[in-house]
C-alpha cells in the first residue's frame, strides 16, 4: 500500500509530544512491512534541521486557494532518519509556521486549516494518489472534509482516510471564516449538528468532530481510552458523535520505537545495558546524580517525565515529590508546563528546593536528558487524570524502571500491579492506583519504596518483568494495516 501521513509533528524533527513519536514509529513499522510511506508536515522555522538529510526543493510553485485568492508555497523534501518527509512552506504575510513553536498561537486553527488545504493541493498537483491518507490530531481534522467535499471531484476519488485522535481534550474550534478561507463555503450546511457544529458552541466549527464525521475509520491510541471516550465524559462533548459513528471507531494501542528507546543500543546514555547486564543500569543512576547534583546515597530515585498540566495529574506529581523525600527516596522532575499558573508554581518549588540534595526539577523539554532519566531512575510516576495511551510507562519498562501509574486509559493495558493484578506473577510489572488523590498514590509509592528497601531481589525481578514486555510497533502496526485494508475495500 501507499500511505501518506499528514501530521502537525514527527519526532525528532518537529516534536512536541507523543503524537510525534507515533508518526515516526508507525511510519517506520509500516515501511518494514513493505508499504510505501510518506509524511507531510509544515515547514516550521523551528524544525531541528540536524535530523533532516538531503533537504531539497521538491515542488517550487504550489498555489493554494485561500479566501478569494491563493498563497504561494514551496514544498521541500528530506529524509528524517530514513523516513520520507515533505515540508510545506507558505510564502505569506500570515507567517503561518514562522512562530518559533509548533502550537500555541492565537490563530492555530487557521494555521492548520491552511496546512490541511495545502496538503491536499500538493497531493493533487504532484499527482500523489495514496491508498490511505492517515491524519493525526485535531490540526488535520479538515483534511477528510476537504477531500470528500472538494478534492474527490477534482481527481482524487479513490483515496481513503484513517483519522487518529491522540487526545479528545484538544479539539480545535473556529467560526465560519475557516469555511470561506478553505473554499468550503456553505455555512448553513457545515453548521449542521451532524457535521461540524460544536456541541457546546453553536457558532463554532469543531475540527476534531470534522475528522470523526468525514473519515472512513477513526482510531484512538488505546482500547481503554476508546472505551472511556464512548462511555465517560472524556470525549469532552463528542460522545454522541462517537455513538453515531460507532461502527468506524476503535482503539489501537500506540507502540514504542525500540530503535530510539532501547537501553541496549541507546547512544544518549553513558552505559548501555540489557537483562543480562542489569547492574550497568546503576552506573547510569550515578551519571544522572552527577548531572543533576544529587546526593549519592543508598536510596531509590523516582522520576516524573512529561508535561506539567492538569491532564497529567500535576497535583499528584507535587505530592509524590514530598512523599518520596519524606520516605527515603530521591525525586527528579523533567518537563515544561504550558499552563502559566502551574509553571509559576513549579518554578517557585524549584527555587525552594534548589539546594536539596535529593531533589531536582528541570522545567523544560529535553529529549536527550529524558533518555538518561529513564536509564538512571528506579521508578517513574504517571499519575494522570486521563491518559490516552502514554509512552512514558512503556519506555520506562524497557529501561527497567518501575512505573507507578493511575488506572486510566492506556495505562491499564500496559502496567499490571505487582500485588493485586490477576495476571501471573511473571507478567506483573509495576504499581497501579485508582483514585486521583494523595491516599491513592501514597499506597502505590509505599509499596514500591518498601519493596526496593526490604526485598531488593524481588524488586529486581519486577524490573526484569518490565524489560521483557514487548510494546513495540509490531502488533499495533498489524492492527493499522488491517484498518487500512478494511477501508480500502468498504
Protein traits:
Rossmann fold; globular; 490 residues; single chain; 6-stranded parallel sheet; 9-stranded mixed sheet
Detailed description of the structure:
Helix 15 (438-454) crosses helix 16. The radius of gyration is 23 Å and the shape is globular. A nine-stranded mixed β-sheet has the order 3-4-5-2-1-6-7-10-11, sandwiched between helices. A six-stranded parallel β-sheet has the order 14-13-12-15-16-17, sandwiched between helices. Strands 8-9 form a two-stranded antiparallel sheet. It has two domains: 2-255 and 474-488, Glycogen Phosphorylase B (Rossmann fold, 3-Layer(aba) Sandwich); 275-468, Rossmann fold (3-Layer(aba) Sandwich). The model has no long low-confidence stretch (mean pLDDT 96). The chain has 17 helices and 17 strands. By secondary structure, it is an alpha/beta fold.
Radius of gyration (CA) equals 23 Å
Strand content: 15-25%
Number of domains: 2
Number of E strands:
17
Shape: globular
Question: Which residues sit in consecutive blocks of at least 5 with pLDDT less than 50?
Answer: none
Question: Remind me, CATH topology of the largest domain?
Answer: Rossmann fold
Number of helices: 17
Q: In the CATH hierarchy, what is the class of the largest domain?
A: Alpha Beta
In CATH terms, the superfamily of the largest domain is Glycogen Phosphorylase B
Adjacency order of strands in the biggest sheet = 3-4-5-2-1-6-7-10-11
Sequence-ordered SSE layout with sheet pairings:
Elements: E1 2-6, H1 18-32, E2 36-42, E3 53-66, E4 69-80, E5 83-91, H2 108-125, E6 132-136, H3 143-149, E7 160-165, E8 173-174, H4 177-181, H5 187-190, E9 205-206, H6 207-214, E10 217-220, H7 223-231, H8 239-244, E11 249-251, H9 281-292, E12 301-305, H10 314-326, E13 330-334, H11 340-352, E14 359-362, H12 367-376, E15 379-382, H13 392-398, E16 402-406, H14 411-414, E17 431-433, H15 438-454, H16 456-468, H17 474-488
Parallel strand pairs: 1-2, 1-6, 2-5, 6-7, 7-10, 10-11, 12-13, 12-15, 13-14, 15-16, 16-17
Antiparallel strand pairs: 3-4, 4-5, 8-9
Helix pairs in contact: 9-12, 10-15, 15-16
Amino acid at each position: 500500500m501507499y500511505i501518506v501521513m499528514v501530521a502537525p509533528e514527527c519526532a525528532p524533527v518537529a516534536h512536541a509530544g507523543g503524537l510525534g513519536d507515533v508518526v515516526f514509529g508507525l511510519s517506520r513499522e509500516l515501511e518494514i512491512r513493505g508499504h510505501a510511506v510518506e509524511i507531510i508536515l509544515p515547514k516550521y522555522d523551528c524544525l531541528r534541521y540536524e535530523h533532516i538529510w538531503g533537504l531539497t526543493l521538491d515542488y517550487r510553485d504550489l498555489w493554494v486557494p485561500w479566501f478569494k485568492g491563493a498563497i504561494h508555497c514551496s514544498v521541500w523534501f528530506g529524509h528524517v532518519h530514513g523516513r520520507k518527509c515533505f515540508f510545506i512552506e507558505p510564502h505569506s504575510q500570515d507567517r503561518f509556521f514562522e512562530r518559533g513553536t509548533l502550537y500555541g498561537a492565537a490563530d492555530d486553527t487557521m494555521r492548520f486549516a491552511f496546512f490541511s488545504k495545502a496538503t491536499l493541493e500538493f497531493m493533487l498537483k504532484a499527482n500523489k494518489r495514496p491508498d490511505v491518507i492517515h491524519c493525526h490530531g485535531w490540526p488535520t481534522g479538515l483534511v477528510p472534509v476537504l477531500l470528500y467535499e472538494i478534492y474527490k471531484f477534482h481527481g482524487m476519488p479513490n483515496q481513503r482516510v484513517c483519522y487518529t485522535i491522540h487526545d479528545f481534550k484538544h479539539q480545535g474550534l473556529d467560526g465560519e471564516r475557516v469555511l470561506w478561507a478553505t473554499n468550503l463555503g456553505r455555512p448553513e450546511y457545515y453548521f449542521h449538528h451532524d457535521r461540524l457544529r460544536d456541541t457546546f458552541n453553536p457558532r463554532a466549527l469543531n475540527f476534531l468532530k470534522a475528522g470523526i464525521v468525514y473519515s472512513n475509520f477513526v482510531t484512538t491510541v488505546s482500547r481503554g481510552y476508546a472505551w472511556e471516550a464512548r462511555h465517560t465524559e472524556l470525549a469532552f462533548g463528542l460522545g454522541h458523535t462517537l455513538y453515531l459513528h460507532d461502527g468506524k471507531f476503535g482503539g489501537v494501542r500506540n507502540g514504542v520505537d525500540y530503535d530510539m528507546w532501547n537501553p541496549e543500543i541507546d547512544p544518549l546514555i553513558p552505559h548501555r545495558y540489557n537483562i543480562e547486564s542489569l547492574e550497568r543500569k546503576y552506573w547510569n543512576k550515578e551519571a544522572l546524580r552527577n548531572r543533576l547534583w544529587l546526593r549519592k546515597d543508598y536510596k531509590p530515585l523516582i522520576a516524573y517525565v512529561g508535561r506539567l498540566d492538569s491532564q497529567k495529574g500535576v497535583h499528584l506529581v507535587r505530592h509524590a515529590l514530598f512523599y518520596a523525600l519524606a520516605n527515603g527516596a530521591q525525586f527528579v522532575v523533567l518537563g515544561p508546563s504550558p499552563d502559566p499558573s502551574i509553571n509559576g508554581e513549579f518554578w517557585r518549588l524549584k527555587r525552594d528546593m534548589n539546594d536539596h540534595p535529593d531533589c531536582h526539577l528541570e522545567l523544560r523539554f529535553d529529549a536527550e536528558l529524558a533518555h538518561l532519566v529513564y536509564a538512571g531512575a528506579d521508578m517513574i510516576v504517571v499519575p494522570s487524570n486521563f491518559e490516552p495511551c502514554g509512552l512514558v510507562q512503556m519506555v520506562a519498562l524497557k529501561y527497567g524502571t518501575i512505573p507507578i501509574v493511575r488506572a486510566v486509559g492506556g495505562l491499564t493495558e500496559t502496567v499490571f500491579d505487582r500485588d493485586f493484578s490477576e495476571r501471573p506473577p511473571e507478567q506483573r510489572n509495576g504499581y497501579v492506583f485508582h483514585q486521583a488523590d494523595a491516599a491513592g498514590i501514597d499506597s502505590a509509592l509505599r509499596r514500591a519504596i518498601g519493596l526496593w528497601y526490604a526485598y531488593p531481589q524481588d524488586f529486581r525481578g519486577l524490573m526484569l518483568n518490565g524489560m521483557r514486555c514487548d510494546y513495540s510497533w509490531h502488533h499495533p502496526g498489524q492492527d493499522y494495516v488491517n484498518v487500512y485494508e478494511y477501508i480500502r475495500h468498504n
